[in-house]
Amino acid sequence: MSERSSSKGSSNKRSRGGDSEEEVVIDDANPPLTLPHIQTRIRQLLARLPSKEETAALTVDDVPALESWCKTVRSILRNYTLTLNFVPFANYQWEPDRPGHTGQSLGALRNQISLSTAQTNIVSSHIGKILTPGIERQIKKKRVTELENGGKEEEFEYENVIFDPDLLQLNREQLVDEGVYKRQLVVSSLEQMLQCIDDYQKAEAGAAGEGAPRFSMAY
Q1: Which letter, b or e, does each residue of 83-100 get, where b requires 16 or more Cβ atoms within 10 Å of its Cβ?
Q2: Using CB atoms within 10 A of its CB, is residue 136 exposed (0-12), middle (13-18) or buried (19+)?
Q3: Strands in 63-217 per DSSP E
Q4: Under 8 Å CB-to-CB from 135, ≥6 apart: which residues?
Q5: Which of 16-25, 31-40, 151-160, 193-202 is predicted with the least confidence, judged by mean pLDDT?
Q6: 91 neighbors 32 (Cβ within 8 angstroms)
Q7: How far is CA 6 from the centre of its chain?
Q8: Exposure winner among 22, 46, 76, 87, fewest CB in 10 A?
Q9: Which contiguous run of DSSP H or E holds residue 133?
Q10: Coarse DSSP helix, strand, coil percentages of the chain, rounded to the nearest 5 percent
Q11: Per residue in 175-211, pLDDT tens?
C-alpha cells in the first residue's frame, strides 16, 4: 500500500518550484495544481477511508453505521473524481513541444484515469442506491373544510415514502456482503493511480533527458 497521511484532516505542505521558503498547502480548501500535489491529495483521501475492520463489522441491523460508512466513502470518491480533473491542467503542454515520444505516456495516463474512474464508479453507484433510494409522494392526510357558501375546500398533506423497500434492503445486504471487496477496489484503484502518475513523471523526465534513462510506461 501507498504511504498514508497521519490524520484525516491533515494537510501537506510542499515547496513550489525552487523556492524553499514558499510553502503550498494541499487540503480541502486548497486544490492541487501540480502532479506531485495531486498525488498528495490522493494520499489524503486514502487515509480517510474507513478501515478494513470497520468495513467488515458493518451489518444491516445497524443502518446508521452503514449509512455513515456510505457517506464517508461517497465524499472520498467525489473528491477523488474532482482531483483527477486537475490532471490535465497540471501536465498541459502544447503537443508539438512535447519531447520525444511522450504522447504515448500521456495516452497511458489518460487511459488509467478512465479506468480508475470506472472502477470507483462501481462503488459510487452502489452507495447511491442506498443513500438515495427511489421515492414517491403519497397522501398522508386529507382535510376537508366546509365553506360558508356551501362549498368545500380540500387540503392534502403528502409524505415521501421509499418506492421499493425490499430493493433497498437487498442493496444494504449486498454492501454488507461485498463491503471489504469494494473498499479494497477503492484502495487499489487510488494506489494504482499514484503509481501511474509516478511512471508518467519518470517517462516525461526521461524523454526530456533530465539525467535519467528513457522510461516507457506499460499499461
Answers
A1: bbebbeeebeeeeeeeee
A2: exposed
A3: 135-146, 152-162
A4: 160, 161, 162, 163
A5: 16-25
A6: no
A7: 20
A8: 22
A9: none
A10: 55, 15, 25
A11: 999 999 999 999 999 999 999 999 999 988 776 665 5
